[in-house]
Amino acid sequence: MPGSRAKGMIMTNMRRAAALAGVALMLTACGSEAAPQRNGTPSTGISSSAAASPDSFTVVATGDVLIHPRLTEQAEADGGGKIDYRQLFAGVKPLVSGADLGICHLETPLAPEGGPYSGYPSFSAPPEIADALKDTGYDTCSTASNHTLDQGAAGVQRTLDKLDQTGLKHTGSARSAGEAEKPLILDVHGVKVAQLSYAFGFNGIKRPAGKPWLANEIDPDEILSAAREAKAAGAEVVIASLHWGVEYQHDVTAEQKQLAQKLTASPDLDLIIGHHAHVVQPFQKVGGKWVAFGLGNEVARHDEPRGSTEEGVAARFRFSRAGGHWAVDKAEYVPTLIDLGPPIRLRDLTTAPPTQRGKEALANTDEVVLSRGAGDEGLSRPGR
Ligand SMILES: [Zn+2]
After folding, report:
1. What is the CATH number of the domain that holds 231?
2. 298 C-alpha to center of ligand 1: Å?
3. Which of 229, 241, 242 is nearest to 268 (CA)?
4. Does the pLDDT of residue 11 top 60, yes or no?
5. Residues with CB under 5 A from ligand 1 (ion)
6. Count of domains in the chain?
């Protein structure tokens, strides 16, 4: 994992080995507390950072985690009767765990332990998915999507409780007004990075009266004020995860363009990563900042796979300190493919053994991601 530091969230074998070898490591306090953390306590363990913060860090963000029943059948087969999604994600584990900050997008609420589970249109996914995300190396998940309220307030509660138990941070939905108000600020090797998460709507489900804080709905002014509050609370970098766009459409919509322009014009927002279309959308620099309009599906098993719904992309950004602030100085995209198997497996197409289908997917994703001039702005992909 060149250029990456061992992640602070887990005492990995790699770090243990490195520590034994006497290699100076940046320690981070992110998630090191035993007690589950509510959504974003600005003071989370900052004081236990043992080293000066670094001059750069990497972020890897991936697409929709959309747990259709056939993925769960695969996970049951892999777990010998117990649900275990880890093998599904194994292909991207080096990529995600190699980042200093791994960001996932959990599109669906989680079911109670043991079920009942459900797929489209009203999702309730096995909670074991959270364990697999943690194992893959994710640190935090955005949870605002059009499915956030599929199982009502109880679903929100269960999902966030499970993420807490698993040691994954989260933002985008909340169990209380107080939780919703606190910005999620992550400690990335001593650098404070905030994450925001908003969705265009909730499939017609109204947020209960008096509980607008259950899930974040896109409102430009609200997003900007949340970004401002995060910066005021000490965040050095603010990343917004937006659930937007049109399903199965690669093209960026007029609404996406307008919102990206408005948000990136603010000094309080540094990066936008997008979700929802279930197909890859372009990357583009807007207002001098990177916008990954849509990362496609990370994992999904639609009843009628379209090819494009199996092609996703991970975004990898390196932020570096320049003068008094942070900016992205390296932007990469890493195409992925859901190999429908059997067995169903997620592949990192820049490291997986080449196949005809993989080559097609690479070509398709290159074309879409670069279609708005991102290559000229410095976006690259490993191996291209
Ligand atoms: Zn969606």
Report:
1. 3.60.21.10
2. 12
3. 229
4. no
5. 145-146, 276
6. 1
